[in-house]
Design goal:
about 260 residues; mainly alpha; MetI-like fold; 13 helices; globular
Length: about 260
């Protein structure tokens, strides 16, 4: 039995240490959420589900969860439609389309606080601050780049012969998109939609600028609770958010792998 090369041992060790460094600060909220101590971060020998009961029985958390779900679903639908159409248009422009597509990811590069200030100023004029519609539009701006990237990658792997065949049979451009291209791109579109959902579900910085007492999302409510009262209920909510985000990301990876296999 041969020993593995030293460089592979070193690489594996570095990978494991990096993964632990990135994941442990996030995963530590899970045992915190079941800890019997009423002080966040202080562990005792008892375990309880009390903090999940308080989370479910609180009207403030239920309202925030409903707001988050509305905004996430609305922005996911809007970002998926607009991002898919944008990726389709970029694929038609060749090298110019790639240049424009590079500019379309600006919301990912620009610091969120700058976007928050800008959107606050614009939405104040449009009277959209403190509304669900304003949050949906703001989160759509943040989510579109991820949809464009995911669907654009699928377009790059799409054989153009299918589109030419549909055109030769008399299909119009949007008929071709709906009946030929979208079924082939479905894994990439769904992956982009999941990424858009996670982006909206976890967004806090921009949302702080645009919410009021009635339209707070879960991350905003968490931020406010951290400033006023720090209890393990926050850890319970963090665990729920972590579970939702993890399931969405796992589903996205499965879809991307199935797309590569096809």
């Amino acid at each position: 039995m041969t020993k593995p090369p030293l460089r592979w041992v070193a690489l594996t060790t570095a990978t494991v240490l990096t993964a632990c460094f990135l994941l442990l600060p996030t995963l530590v909220v899970v045992p915190m959420s079941f800890n019997g101590s009423s002080t966040l971060g202080v562990f005792d020998s008892t375990w309880t589900t009390r903090w999940y009961d308080e989370l479910l029985s609180s009207s403030a958390w239920r309202t925030a969860a409903f707001n988050s779900l509305q905004v996430a679903l609305g922005s996911t639908v809007l970002a998926t439609v607009l991002g898919t159409l944008a990726a389709w248009g970029f694929s038609k422009l060749g090298i110019y389309g790639r240049a424009v597509q590079g500019g379309s990811i600006a919301p990912v590069i620009v610091p969120p606080i700058i976007l928050g200030v800008g959107l606050y100023s614009v939405f104040l004029t449009w009277q959209l601050n403190g509304t669900v519609l304003g949050l949906v539009l703001a989160h759509t701006v943040l989510a579109i780049p991820f949809v464009v990237i995911a669907v654009g990658a699928s377009f790059a792997q799409l054989d153009p012969v299918y589109e030419r065949a549909a055109a030769s049979l008399g299909a119009k451009p949007f008929q071709t998109l709906r009946r030929v291209i979208l079924p082939l791109l479905l894994p990439g579109v769904v992956a982009g939609a999941l990424f858009a959902f996670v982006t909206s579900w976890d967004e806090v910085v921009v949302s702080i600028f645009l919410t009021d007492a009635q339209t707070r999302t879960l991350p905003v409510e968490m931020w406010i609770q951290v400033r006023t009262q720090v209890t393990p209920t926050l850890a319970a909510l963090g665990t729920c958010l972590l579970l939702v985000s993890s399931l969405a990301l796992i589903a996205m990876q499965v879809l991307r792998r199935s797309e590569r296999d096809d």
